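Quick one before lunch.
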Amino acid sequence: MCGIVGYVGGQSALDVVIAGLRRLEYRGYDSAGVAVLADGGLAAAKKAGKLVNLEKELVERPLPAGVTGIGHTRWATHGAPTDANAHPHLDNAGRVAVVHNGIIENFAALRAELAGRGHDLGSETDTEVVSHLLAEAFSSSGDLAESMRQVCRRLEGAFTLVAVHADEPDVVVGARRNSPLVVGVGQGESFLASDVAAFIAHTRSAIELGQDQVVELRRDGVTVTDFAGDPAEVRSYHIDWDASAAEKGGYDYFMLKEIAEQPKAVADTLLGRIDAQGALTMDELRIPQSVLREADKVVIVACGTAFHAGLIAKYAIEHWTRLPCEVELASEFRYRDPILDRRTLVIAISQSGETMDTLMALRHAREQGAKVLAVCNTNGSTIPRESDAVLYTHAGPEVAVASTKAFLTQLVACYLLALYLGQRRGTKWGDEIRAVIKDLSQIAGEVERVLETMEPVRALARSLADKGTVLFLGRHVGYPVALEGALKLKELAYMHAEGFAAGELKHGPIALIEEDLPVVVVVPSPRGRSVLHDKIVSNIQEIRARGARTIVIAEEGDEAVVPYADHLIRIPATPTLLQPLVATVPLQVFACELATARGNEVDQPRNLAKSVTVE
Ligand code: AGP
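Model of the 2-deoxy-2-amino glucitol-6-phosphate complex:
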C-alpha cells in the first residue's frame, strides 16, 4: 500500500520524486517523505499527513539540489502516522536513508540486537532497523548494493526496500520480496517505483523484478542480482499505458473517468481473444491443455470486488463446463484446510496483482499441487508472476480505490475462461461458444447505453444523501451484483449498506424493512429463468408493503415490476449470465454520486488503500 519512488539521472531528484509520489497517492497513505543526495551528504524531510504537508515543509526548509533521491508515501502498519514514523528512515550518522513497503516480521529481534550495539532507534517502525543494518554493512562492504544483499538475507517477511548512501551519490539500490517494485529505464536516468504510474511521464521502458532480487540503479543503467549476489534474469517490457491514462481526463475524479472507460475496457479485454470467425483464441494462456481437461474442480480465490467477480464467474463456469466451482475469500481460504490436489484449477482474481491475502492463498494452493491461473490487470505484478498462467484484463490503470472497470473486465475474463474450459472439455460446441461471444461483443455498446441514461440515478443518489442505510437484493447472478453495490456504497459513502440474496429476506433481513428505507433490487431477466423473476417481483411487493422505498433495476420491456417500483432503472436486455455487466453500472454511479453529495473524497476513501499488500 505504500508508495515508493527512486531516481538517479540528470533532473532534479526532488522534482521527479515528488511528482512520482503524487501519481501514487491513490495507493492510500497517511504520511510522506523524501531524501536527496547532494554536496557529499544526505538530506531528508518527512511529514505526517498528505503530500501537501511535506511540500510546505520543503518550502520552509528546502533540501539541497541533487540528482539522486528517494521518496515514500506511507500507509501505517507498525507505528502511528507521525513525522517520526514517516519514511525515509536514517541511520544515526545520517548517511543512509531507506524507504520500505511491507512488513519485516523479525524486526523486534533485529531492533534489540541493534540497540545492544548502541544504535538509537527513534521510531516505532519495523523499517528503521534496515537503515541501521545497512549502515553497519556498508562500513565493511563499502558498497550499498552488497550491503542491501547482506541485510535482505537477514530479513523475514514481505518487503520492498529502496535506499541511498551519501558515500555513493550516483546510486539508488532497491530490493523486493513479496512486495511490488518496478524499474524504469530512461535516457541517462533510471527510476524505481511501486508501480509504473510514478514514472510513465518519463519513460515507458520497464524491467520486471523477480522475487528476492536486488537492483542497483545508476544513470547509465541497472544491475540486478539475487540476494546471494549472482546475476539475475529479468524481463524488460513496454508500458502501453500513456501518461494521460493516469490523469483524470477532465473528470472530477478518477472513479468517474474509470466508470466512463468501462465500454472500452470491456472491448479491450476481448481484443485478440476472438478470431475472425468469432471463435475463442486463447493462445496466450500458457497452461497445458491436459490441466484444463483433467481438472475436476475449480476454486476461485479473491478479495472484495474481485471476490464478487468470482461469485458471478461461478455461475458461468458451472453452467458452461459442469465443473464444480467453489469461490473463497482469499483471507479465509488457506485457514480452512481446503481440499486441493493436482486436478484442482485455482483461479486467483486480482486487479492489482499485489493483494497479499490472494497471493498467500495461491501460494498455499500451489504447495498443495494445484495449478493456479491468475486473472489480473497489472502486468508484471506478483500474483501473475507466481501463477502457472495468467489472463490479463485490459482495463488500463485503475487509480480510484473503488474498483469499477477492473470489475467488469474481471467478469469478461472469467466468461472467456469459462467458455475456454467448456471448449477444451467439449461441454460447449463451437457454435454455442460463438453465440456467447457474439453477445459479449455487444456488451461494450450496451454499457455505453446505460452510461447515457444515468442522470436520474445521480439525482436519486443525491436525494438519498442523508439516509443511514440502503439494502440491496438480488437473485442468481444478481445476488453478487447486490453484494458489489453494497460494497461500493460502504467504501464510498461510509454508510451502512448490505446485500442479500432476495430469497433470504424472509429468513431474517425483512425485519430490517421500515418506512422509506431505500432497497435496491436487481431483477433477473424474465426471459431467462421466469421463476426467478416472478419470485423477486413477489419480494419487491413484500418489502414495499412494509414501507420500503423500492429502487428497481430491471431490463427494458419488463413491465411486471412497474407497479412496485418507486424508482425504475432500466438496463438493456442481455442473456441471463451476462446481466451483471450492465446491472452493476448504475450501482457504481449511484454510490459515487451519493458519496460526492456527502462531500467524501471519492478516489481515496478513508482508511482504504488501492492495493492491500499486507495480510
Ligand atoms: C473494491 O472496490 C476495493 N477496492 C477492494 O475490495 C478490492 O477489490 C480488493 O482489495 C481486491 O483488490 P485486488 O483486486 O487488487 O486484489
